[in-house]
Amino acid sequence: MKNSNSISQIPHRISQIVIFFFLSVSVLFAKVNERPKLVVAITIDQFPYEYLEKFRPYFGKGGFNLLLKNGANFTNATYKHSINETGPGHASIYSGCYGNKNGIVMNDWFDRKLHRRVNCAEDTSIKNFHSSRIGRSPKNNLAYTVGDMLRLSNNFQSKVIGISMKDRGAIFPAGKFANAAYWIEDSMFTSSNYYMQSLPDWVEKFNARKNIDSYFGKNWNKLLVEKEYKTLCDIDDAKYESDEDGLGLSFPHIIHGKEKTPKTKTYYEAFFTSPFCNDVLLQFAKEAIEQEQLGKRNVTDMLCVSFSANDYVGHNYGPNSQEVMDITVRTDRLLEEFFKYLDKIIGLKNCVITLTADHGVAPIPDYLKSRFTNIEAGKITPKEIRQLSERFLNNTFGTFSDTTHWIDFVVHHNIYISEKACKSKSISVEQAAKVIQDSLLQMKEIVDVFRADELKSGSRQTPFTSKLKNSFFEKRSGDVFFVMKPYYLEDRGSNTTHGAPYNYDAHVPVLFYGKGVMKMESNEDCAPIDIAATLSSLLGIEFPPMSEGRVLEVRSKK
Ligand SMILES: [Zn+2]
Q: Which of 86, 300, 331, 354 is catalytic?
């Protein structure tokens, strides 16, 4: 007869408990060990999803294809905000929310109190190193990021570092608790006293090697054989391409900015508009990993890297150019080099890699017109919108005898009405906004116009309402918002641009790869802001406070 309390059972019990204890501990350790050593969060500045499909035949095995073939690929990820720009894109991905919450509604906006244009990453209380420019910090971004939550999760043991050519591309992905953000000013990588008292020695040494100046006079040649470009792309010397940064219209592009010495603003602009700039960024990223011992410290570290040269090239030559094809294929090779490096020094199996873009891009309107003369496409300058708005208001409410103007500013589809002007005519800003709205709606280029009070109340529902609301932050946004028809652009000096609520600007890659991520492809409707919650979930940390994105099902099932 068996008695569970019998003395003979006790040693067996103890051994069971001991076994259970060791099993529990090993499960616990297994769970801790499941955490990746390094998260590499890659953003490519201006990279529509289409490039992944279009240029895939030219990709190697270890670049984009490493993630496409072995990771989770979301083919239907779109930004659900209307102003698809660099600041809003980078601020939303790792915070998991849009400008209506994080406040980064545009690259820059008109500050009504300061009565001037304000850059999304500027902070007048902060100083950049080696620079006389206004300081940069994440202050204007009200949201926190995955990196912030990672640091908070373990008493700030994790290191989080952001790197980009652009200040906003480095600062916003990394977050407010980041150890550092580094970006390029002219010939040097810099940061600001938001993060540290002075640049680390390794950064100063990297700068002293004059990597950026060393590319002066180099030729940017085509990577692939000539014929490959001809089928997929427009002609190389199309007259509607831009020579703005002194690179000329066709290959080979000589990187000198038409200057005799590298120490000139135009050389640096030419350099930024070349794949060489991405190469230097990768060198810097490797240096950061080695010097900061990222991924080698028994906690999960995070490196956010944003490659900006793709954006500069796209703005000048357009998405249908041979230059964009070339820099995209070169980006593939660059990623392959990066992933091989990660494998060698940390092991890809110990990393989690995410890849997305801050926005896409529109074709150059004149490219479309060169094929279809009568197609509705073109550009409108903010100045034209301003002059038109002034004229509408003058006609309705009368002109001013002094220097008063109706409009303070027009930027990124936002029109800021002068409160002073409205007061002097004893009308409300809403009344003035209504006149602009009614008049702009008559223009052939414009498809919809909203007033701020309509976005606040949600009183007007059109197909654009929800996207515009996500790009509306009362303290920073304008009083009137216009949406142009597809392929009409707000002309801010570059040849083509982005910033519209259309898929060519909003549809971007969302890829996950690495530890704990399964191989899969999904065409479900999702957004780059889902990366924040998904990555937090993979890392076993709290979601960023304002994150509203979903956890995408990427976790491998064991
Ligand atoms: Zn951008």
A: 86
